[in-house]
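Journal club prep — side note

Before the paper discussion, L.F. wants everyone to see what a predicted structure for a comparable chain looks like in token form. Sequence:
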Amino acid sequence: MVHVNNTHTNITMKHDKGTINKNIHNTPDIIIELDSTSCPQVRSLLSAYKGHLVDVGSYLLEGLRNTAPQQLAARVGDYNENLFYEMQDNDKDISGIIDGIPHDYQQLQNDIDKFELSMKSSLQHSNLTYRGSFMRTESTIYQPAHVDYDYPILEQYGHKLFLAFFPLTQEGAYLQLWQEPSKDDVIAGGDPIEGTVVFIPYGKMLIMPSDTIHGGGFKRGSSGNLRFHLYIALEEEEVRREDNITLLDHPMNKYTEKHDRRHELCERFVDAEGLESLLGTYFDVHTDACDANNDFSGASSTKSLKLDCQHEIGNDFAIRSASHVNLFGLSEEMEVM
């Protein structure tokens, strides 16, 4: 777990910001571009989801992009397996993650200071910790609706946990969001809840509450929409463990319903209308030869793969509930066959 501090680290900058094979500004109408909080549509979405949109400096972005491994260490162990990630050590802040020698050390440090201050200001808390992960998408397969922590963690500590997403290339990043209906709507049954797809431009970061139902899996460009995913925890005056639990050690994709794990969230929370028509026309559905992780043969799909979660673990085959995948490589409630 990383406490926000003023640690100084040298880096070497790169200027390759990734390329895209389509015009990123020609955003389809069903996608909301989070370019400015002055836009009424953006303000409305942030209000509905209790989110925040903040700026991220170019020196910080270049530093992280330069530090990102050419090949990320692991696949997210959900239904799709089209998402790669590499979680960073929990004792590293942004300064610790970035390495090498910067072109302008002071500019970099200014970006880091502003970045951490923006999180404190947005969350109205003077003391926080965070842990980050590099992510990229191999081929577009819309990720099913999920939350990033197990429900007991969310119930007890969710008010002090947040998620954040920001792109590391000009390709930007895409995310699908769903709103949990009111209790009256749940009791009444109601129609499936369609997602809202957002585009996070380069230079922006989206911060959301930890219980936000969301899904990724979008690819549009040669870098696989290389991005950074933050897990943020609000702390008291001193960084401490909560009942011997280090909260930032416990992200875990949960795809099942909170009160009935026999049912998947994606049975109620479905893809945005018209999203499927963007496969192959707007979003990439093939594996590019220039993909950084192209030694894996990922299958493309026109829909989210939802109820098939068989994985090979080492030399053994296992059935693993996708709702029990720990993003730090730990699997729980695993039944080995």
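L.F.'s comment for the group: The radius of gyration is 19 Å. Keep this in mind when we get to the figures.
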